[in-house]
Amino acid sequence: MRPSEDATPHARIPTDVDTPDKIVYGLTARQLAILAMAAVLGYGIVRSVGTLLPQPVLIAVLTPLAGAAIVLALGRRDGLPMDAWLMAAVRHTRSPQRLAPAAAGQPAAVPPWAPVTETPRTPVLRLPATAISATGVIDVGTHAVALVACTTVNIGLRTGDEQAALIGSYGRWLNSLSSPVQIVISAQRVDLSSHAHRIADTTETIANPALVSAARDYASFLDDLAARRDPLWRTVTVAVTATGDTARDAEVLRRAAHTASALSALGAQTTVLDGGHAAAVLTCATDPYTPADVTWARARPDETITGAGDGHAPTAMA
Q1: Rg (CA), the chain
Q2: With contact defined as beta carbons under 8 Å apart, do 277 and 133 qualify?
Q3: Which strand (E) or helix (H) includes residue 244?
Q4: How far is CA 204 from CA 86, 135, 199, 200, 223, in A?
Q5: In 26-72, beta strands by DSSP E
Q6: Which residues contact 303 (CB under 8 A, 6 or more apart)?
Q7: Quick one: average pLDDT of 153-159?
Q8: What is the pTM of this model?
């Protein structure tokens, strides 16, 4: 019997692609190394003091060692192996707790409003991204990154053939990748107040009184919704990477354009972000609940900001 044309296609996508390989008895190399070190340490204790201590005392000494080794090898915390989690905790406690972003070679001065602390200087916060070009290429040292913003596609409303075609197109894009990419799906706060203000300002240019009344009611509705709710919207960003010493920026932009073209064939709206919008995405990523959203561009870190000055000529501000 032929399957129905509207049957929903199923594609198995493994979620453990980054899981380390199992070596023996379902244990990874890291887990075996931890257990082996504990076994060697326990064997050394038995060989050195096993004949000098009573058996109950020897068992009392070896039991905490075995328990700690098992917890360290098999335990997990916050999605991390226990040994990696403990190392991160140690690095966090030993690192300075007050960090501030600053350019390379510039000391991070404490602002006048900051409280006086025992530490005379605030350490510099070292971020992976070191520069953002006007074309949107982010320099992270070892490789370059370009960001592609895209919308989602409602596959549930498509027929079986259409769903199969979309899944096939998405699979072809994944198979065409020659370098790592990252797909980030995040929830961002929607600034409805700014939309309401723009609508209220637009009413001054509307000649029809009925449309003016409807626009003002809509602006009031948005203000009331922003006061009573915390609306969120979903953003999808694809980070495309490229390595190499020559023409790295051009290559990452070419890959970003290919990604935008391939995903737009699925029915999604895509665009390669320029420097200002890439800076906006990174800014909002550090604080997802910031009142501002990613729809308007930000000034890049090394970009000169100009202002009106005294009204005669624009002036540059650092």
Answers
A1: 28
A2: no
A3: none
A4: 61, 37, 9, 8, 18
A5: 27-28
A6: 275
A7: 84
A8: 0.59
